[in-house]
Write a structure and sequence with these properties.
With 277 residues, the protein is α/β, with parallel strands linked by helices. The two termini are 33 Å apart. Helix 3 packs antiparallel against helix 4. The protein has eleven helices and twelve strands.
Length: 277
């Protein structure tokens, strides 16, 4: 699911940002040949994600470090659980600690939040998906974390699919004109999604024969009416301002997809610590 060449690039940039020339504390305090053991410990309940990425950080600084994984990506952890055992050079462990934890905590936070949303909509047809509202440079690992939490991915970038948002539609002169213009130029493998703001625009989108329709910032009552009007003729995606409190009501309208930008742009990090012993 993750291209490790991509991950290695993230890790290299993060380590260079964190260490720069030397680690003033570690390099002056810890003997070069010192060895220690450490553990990664969960400090909360949630879904683990990014353990292999975290391991890669340690391996970048010490290729022969010993890493023993007790919990895998996608598995639930409880406060106090030992996630992994680490044995190697003390300098490598200390220098890798913050970068490894930053990535592991962030990815586990996304997986945990996604899993909570997935549980809320359980029993409905709705799938929880992410958006392009990701942190620059971290999109692939953030979207991976969403899948680990039980969600699915929206498009990865602007090249994956065509999405006509309000500004595109207004600039092109309307929904039908925009869809027809795109159909003439894109290949048969590229899907078109149209964002609509009301039921009138929904009907226009249906007449255009687009592939997906996004219901933007609509109330659950209007969404339910949109599902009735669509009657299975298009995939319906709900988006905009959806929270824990409104999520179930949105899912019960019958939409196919619920996209949530908060899963990646404002998620709380999952609490994990590293303890040397």
């Amino acid at each position: 699911m993750i291209n490790m060449l991509y991950v290695d690039d993230i890790i290299k940039k993060a380590l260079l940002e964190d260490i720069n020339y030397i680690d003033v504390t570690t390099d002056n305090l810890i003997p070069e040949d010192a060895q220690n053991k450490a553990q990664l410990i969960a400090k909360a309940d949630g879904v683990l994600c990014g353990i292999d990425v975290a391991f890669r950080v340690f391996e970048t600084l010490q290729s022969d470090i010993t890493l023993i994984k007790h919990i895998n990506d996608g598995e639930k952890v409880k406060k106090g659980d030992i996630i992994a055992d680490i044995s190697g050079k003390t300098r490598a462990i200390l220098k890798a600690e913050r970068t490894a934890l930053n990535l592991l905590q962030h990815m586990s936070g996304i997986a945990t939040a996604t899993n909570r949303y997935v549980e809320i909509v359980k029993g409905t047809k709705a799938n929880i998906v992410d958006t392009r509202k990701t942190l620059p440079g971290l999109r692939a690992i953030q979207k991976y974390a969403v899948t680990v939490g039980g969600g699915k991915n929206h498009r990865f970038n602007l090249s994956d699919a065509a999405m006509l948002k309000d500004n595109h539609i207004d600039a092109a002169g309307g929904i039908k004109q925009a869809v027809y213009s795109l159909r003439e130029k894109i290949g048969h493998m590229t899907k078109i999604e149209v964002e609509v703001r009301d039921l009138d625009e929904l009907r226009q989108a249906l007449d255009s024969n687009c592939d997906i329709i996004m219901l933007d910032n609509m109330s659950p009552e209007i969404m339910k009416r949109a599902v009735e009007i669509t009657n299975g003729k298009s995939v319906l995606e709900a988006s905009g301002g959806i929270t824990d409190e409104t999520l179930r009501a949105v899912a019960e309208t019958g939409v196919d997809i619920i996209s949530v930008g908060a899963l990646t742009h404002s998620v709380k990090a999952f609490d994990i610590s590293l303890k040397i012993y």
